[in-house]
Amino acid sequence: MLKNFFQNRPDLKSPEEIRLMREAGKLVAHALELCKSMAKPGVSTLDLDKAVENFYKEQRALSLFKGYPGKVPFPAVTCISINEQVVHGIPGQRIIRDGDLLKIDTACKLNGWCADAAISIPIGTVSPEKIRLVETGEQILELAIKELSCRKWWTEVASRMQQMAESAGYSVVTQYVGHGIGKRMHEHPQVPNYVNREVRRNDFRIEEGLVLAVEPMINMGRPETEVLRDHWTVVTRDGMPSVHVEHTLAVLPDGIHVITSKEDRIFKR
Question: Does a cis peptide bond (omega within 30 degrees of 0) precede residue 189?
């Protein structure tokens, strides 16, 4: 799977292009905050999706998820996954319940440039085990941002992400990875959250102009996943909870810019 994406070099972006991506990133951050404010017991996942769809329309932004090609085109502007669902959950009539672990992923294009991010939200009274899983996922993403600012190769970052997950007693999903992003949502290179022989053989350099959607997916149990009959929803094979968080990150001379944060965030190099 990785070989095809590693055949081409990343398409490096100029500071002006990254500035335009930041405008899209602000919309994605706002959309996720909107979901966070609405995500309460009794609300349907479709309610959240419709709110984001209306927001993108108001901002004249293009959803990057709705209509995304597959055996069945993806039908929504958000991926909403709950508990054992890892990623790519389809919003619908399912009601959010107290104790759920909710994951929301969304992306948009504004003025020709893309941004992509995801958050995990504990709903109501959540078990300490789920809270710890969410906190670890968020810490792994923060670690990746900091490591990007001081490392030369992606595998140096990914190995530390994997170490943090496994030292906490969790597993890293290997079937799905992050990606380059720019004028298209999915660009070269693929961005694994783990390291093995193939990833090391196809490593890429961290250099100015690189823009990556970094998205650790961490399972409470084993790493294996499977896809449901809807052709999209990915679940853990053992039924244990999973967490998913994501930011679009840009490498610039002054540091790592978090494209999809609410406020300007830069980790100095």
Answer: yes
Query: In the beta sheet, which residues pair with residue 268?
Result: 255
Which residues contact residue 242 at a Cβ distance below 8 angstroms, ignoring those fewer than 6 apart?
Answer: 81, 83, 84, 85, 86, 103, 133, 173, 217, 218, 219, 220, 236
Residue 100, domain CATH: 3.90.230.10
Is 0.90 topped by the overall pTM? yes
- How many domains does the chain contain in total? 1
Task: Say how far apart CA 247 and CA 103 lie, in whole Å.
Answer: 14
The tens-digit pLDDT sequence of the chain (269 residues) is 444 544 567 999 999 999 999 999 999 999 999 999 999 999 999 999 999 999 999 999 999 999 999 999 999 999 999 999 999 999 999 999 999 999 999 999 999 999 999 999 999 999 999 999 999 999 999 999 999 999 999 999 999 999 999 999 999 999 999 999 999 999 999 999 999 999 999 999 999 999 999 999 999 999 999 999 999 999 999 999 999 999 999 999 999 999 999 999 999 98
Q: Which two tokens stand for residue 119?
A: 């958050």
CA 123 to chain centroid, in Å, comes to 19
Domain that holds residue 78: 2-268
DSSP β-ladder status, 234-236 and 113-122:
unpaired
Q: Phi and psi of 234, rounded to 5°?
A: -95, 130
Q: What are phi and psi of 238, to 5 degrees?
A: -90, 0
